[in-house]
């Protein structure tokens, strides 16, 4: 009986920490650019995590109907973080994320891809149509320019 109680306590702790990790793994941050959110992504990547990011972003977009742009920042993802991730799966999940948001009328923008990850995807012959920029700043500058705005006009 005592072992069963300990096992249940451990399972509860694992579930609790998994919940914390899921909540922290891809925070959604309102940008200074109107109708734009940023989703910084860092750390180990796997298929289920990208699906969770997709679900979380779609759920956020459902309750914030004014969102027009979602910027996914992969600056914090290293080659080691995707070492066990099949690049075909990575490209497929990114396409699913992109297409699902597109169906909701949200423009997806991706920034900060590691050059080695990009090289591996291209070398594998995987074709992915994503709007990409080197970093978050360049993406925001582009959005501001398209709307004839500047940081001064937003203040």
Give a written overview of the molecule.
- It is built from 6 helices and 5 strands, in the order H-E-E-H-E-H-E-H-E-H-H.
- It has 155 residues and is of the alpha/beta class.
- The protein has one domain: 2-Layer Sandwich (Transcription Regulator spoIIAA).
- Strand 3, helix 3 and strand 4 form a beta-alpha-beta unit.
- The model has no long low-confidence stretch (mean pLDDT 85).
Features:
single chain, 155 residues, alpha/beta, Transcription Regulator spoIIAA, 6 helices, 5 strands
CA-atom Rg in angstroms: 18 Å
What's the CATH topology name? Transcription Regulator spoIIAA
Structural class: alpha/beta
CATH architect. name: 2-Layer Sandwich
**How big a fraction of the residues is strand?**
15-25%
Order of helices and strands: HEEHEHEHEHH
Largest sheet: 5 strands, mixed
Number of domains: 1
Oligomer: single chain
Number of extended strands: 5
State the CATH class: Alpha Beta
């Amino acid at each position: 009986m005592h072992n069963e109680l300990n096992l249940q306590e451990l399972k509860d702790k694992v579930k609790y920490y998994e919940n914390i990790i899921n909540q922290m793994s891809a925070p959604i941050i309102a940008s200074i650019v109107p109708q734009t959110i940023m989703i910084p992504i860092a750390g180990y990547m796997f298929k289920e995590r990208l699906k969770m990011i997709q679900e979380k972003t779609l759920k956020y977009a459902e309750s914030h109907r004014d969102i027009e742009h979602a910027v996914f920042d992969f600056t914090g993802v290293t080659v080691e973080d995707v070492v066990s991730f099949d690049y075909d799966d990575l490209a497929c999940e990114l396409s699913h994320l992109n297409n699902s948001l597109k169906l909701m009328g949200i423009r997806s923008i991706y920034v900060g891809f590691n050059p080695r990850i990009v090289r591996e995807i291209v070398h594998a012959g995987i074709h992915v149509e994503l709007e990409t920029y080197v970093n978050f700043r360049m993406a925001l500058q582009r959005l501001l320019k398209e709307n004839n705005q500047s940081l001064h006009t937003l203040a």
